[in-house]
Amino acid sequence: MPPDDLRSAAARRDEGVRKVSALTWRAGAAGVICSAIIAVAFGQHAETAAAKSGSAPGTIAVPNQPPAPGPGAGHVTSGGS
Fold first, then answer.
1. Which phi and psi angles does 47 have, rounded to 5°?
2. Planar angle of CA 41, 46, 52, nearest 5 degrees
3. Which are the contacts of 47, defined by CB distance < 8 A and separation ≥ 6?
4. Contact, 57 vs 46, CB < 8 A?
5. Among residues 1, 19, 21, 44, which one has the fewest Cβ atoms lying within 10 Å of its Cβ?
């Protein structure tokens, strides 16, 4: 292959690598921005839900008594015939 063709091929390759690199950086930046938008949106929703419930954020409401058993057969054995 003549030297001019090698330089031309190398220049095209380098240009392609630069384009792919730029696209990769842009896609990564778009992903970070979208993640931040989603985090802010869910953060706003959590703050709104906590304000509506009247409890402090990050707390878990524990009932005073366990739930009552529902109507039905009572004790069921798995695999029994």
1. -65, -40
2. 125
3. 57
4. yes
5. 1
pLDDT for residue 80 = 57
- CA gyration radius, the chain: 31
Q: What is the 3-state secondary structure (H, E, C) of the chain?
A: CCHHHHHHHHHHHHHHHHHHHHHHHHHHHHHHHHHHHHHHHHHHHHHHHHHHHCCCCCCCCCCCCCCCCCCCCCCCCCCCC
Q: Which residue has the tokens 């009572």?
A: 74
